[in-house]
Write a structure and sequence with these properties.
two-stranded antiparallel sheet, about 5% strand, mainly alpha, 2 helices
């Protein structure tokens, strides 16, 4: 006579094996997910820097076009602040001028997010500053950099990008 066992559920060994396999998968997936999040933030930072720097270059080009042949003492042609790129400027050239805007908004540094209601903060350099300067003389905005002290996946500092 054969006994037919009616099995319902998992045995203790099967349960232990399942939990072990899930634990191993979790230890692999969690660091991968963290790296993906960091990589996405780095891509966002590169896009933000490129967007601001492109707007600064377009501002300079528009300034130079509006002031062709005119030498204006003590003016570099770069915006006074980042807000000028958003609010717009009337360069007052020879042709009928209108206010020209270069950014819809100032992009956010994903590694240095502002508190709710505050403006994004960036490190600024003027035309007169050294390329690696961390102080700004408030004369114009020639370049921007991240204020984050973090280190990128490739080992460089975000503030050096």
């Amino acid at each position: 006579m054969r006994y037919i066992r009616n099995r319902k559920g998992l045995s203790f060994i099967e349960l232990i094996m399942t939990v072990t396999i899930l634990g191993i998968l979790a230890t692999v997936i969690v660091p991968f997910t963290q790296m993906t999040v960091k990589r996405n933030k780095e891509l966002e930072l590169r896009r933000s820097l490129r967007e601001i720097r492109t707007a600064i270059d377009e501002y300079k080009k528009a300034y130079d076009d509006a002031h062709k042949g005119k030498q204006i003492l003590n003016e570099t042609g770069y915006p006074e602040t980042l807000e000028v790129l958003v609010t717009g400027t009337d360069f007052g050239g020879e042709a009928k001028s209108t206010k020209k805007k270069f950014l819809r908004r100032i992009p956010v540094d994903p590694f240095n997010r502002p508190a709710s209601g505050e403006k994004p903060e960036w490190g600024l350099r003027s035309y007169k500053d050294e390329p690696d300067s961390t102080t700004w003389d408030n004369s114009d905005v020639y370049d921007v950099y991240s204020l984050s002290e973090g280190t990128a996946i490739d080992g460089t500092k975000y503030k050096d990008w």
